[in-house]
Amino acid sequence: MADSSQIVKVPRVLLVDAVVPLSSVLFPGQLSIPNDADFEWWWLAIQRTDARLKVLISESATQRSFIFSGSPLQAGTFAGVFVDNLAGLVSNNGQFPIAVPYIMPAARSYPHQFTDLSGAQNTVQVAYHGFALINVAGK
Amino acid sequence: MNEFVASAMNKMIPRLMNTQQNPRVGMVPKVFQRGVYKHGQLYAPGLEGGMPTWCYAEMLLEAQATDDTTLTLPVGFNLIAFMGVSYLSVAGVPSAVAGDFRVQIYDVNGQRDFIPGKAVNAGNISGNQGKISFLVHPYFFAGDEPQAQIRLSNLSTQQALVQFALYGPQGVFPE
Hints:
The complex is a heterodimer.
Chain A: E1 7-20, E2 27-32, E3 38-48, E4 53-59, E5 64-65, E6 67-68, E7 81-82, E8 96-104, E9 109-116, E10 122-135
Antiparallel strand pairs in A: 1-10, 2-9, 3-8, 3-10, 4-5, 4-7, 4-9
Chain B: H1 3-10, E1 51-61, E2 66-72, E3 78-90, E4 93-98, E5 101-107, E6 112-113, E7 120-121, E8 133-140, E9 147-154, E10 160-170
Antiparallel strand pairs in B: 1-10, 2-9, 3-4, 3-8, 3-10, 5-6, 5-7, 5-9
């Protein structure tokens, strides 16, 4: 029997908002994929108060990390990549293309850990742009 | 109808036109966001399913100092972009002022030097805040323990915290 499944891509933006206290280390945030559909991730955009902010991102179900450092000469503790090395603002044409789209399954969570080096409160919003893969078979 | 035109139409010679589309068309950023990637097209071919990964080297370098390190990359890492930032620092504390640096990159297993004999200025290879340069063709770091040697040189006249990152999907093995 032919596969009657049909996927409709609905534009979707998923957000991680955090107010990172000054000089905090590995301050938690979380991206949660909604239950209704898998998410196809295409772009990343970040707005922050100060660029001196690091982040670590991982995938809870697989225990895999998006960010690696194998450098033994690390300047400090392994606290992640500077947010400006990930992405900038859409309004500054700084949205980062993931290039090879990544599917984030429905209901999966992606823990974020922020580390502030600015010495002041840092408000950050991480925007994941992509598509909800809505299955409309039989509807 | 003009006699000459009518004659030309009757004798029109089929032209051979190259209508083949490069599968990587649009992979080179011409205009950010709009021109780089097109929705529904798969990039890069053969890398679908790879997990987006950033691997970085970070060094606190004194004025005009150079140091190097070897990054242990995840298995099946395919390099497609570079990012880098430098912050002028005092006693290890980064300021908001950006510095400048140079970088050299070497594939340890493949024994390939990406910038042979020289070091490229950061602004000529990497940017930040998403304004970065993509490779036209992904580069696969081979081996069970892929490694990249990164050498960073601080061009500023004071201490700087320099971080250079390699971006690409991991866990995929192009044929």
